[in-house]
Amino acid sequence: MLDLIRGGDIQAFEDIVLRYQDTIYNLCRYMTGSAGDAEDITQDTFIKAFRNLGKFREGSFSSWLFRI
């Protein structure tokens, strides 16, 4: 799937967002205690992931995403 995203397949990236958005949001909500901040951080996380996908090499994609 990552190869599809790197190739410009926006639907594949949307699938990644749908798969991880709740988990990322819940982690951010737990860490900040704020729904608004959690929403902003979640959005920023996926923006950074999209922009830096070329830097992801091997390993667990979800671990990489959570580190962002």
Describe this entry's structure for a reader.
- This protein is mainly α and 68 residues long.
- The chain is 76% helix and 0% strand.
- It is built from four helices and no strands.
- The protein is elongated, with a radius of gyration of 12 Å.
- The mean pLDDT is 88.
In short:
The chain has helices at residues 2-6, 10-32, 35-51, 61-67. It has four helices and no strands.
How many alpha or pi helices? 4
Average pLDDT works out at 88
Largest sheet: none
Contiguous low-pLDDT stretches (5 residues minimum) are none
Query: What does the radius of gyration come to?
Result: 12 Å
Give the amount of beta strand, in percent: under 5%
Q: Using the alpha-carbon principal axes, give the shape.
A: elongated
Helix content: over 70%
**Structural class of the secondary structure composition?**
mainly alpha
Q: How far apart lie the N and C ends? A: 19 Å
Give the topology string: H per helix, E per strand.
Answer: HHHH
Number of strands: 0
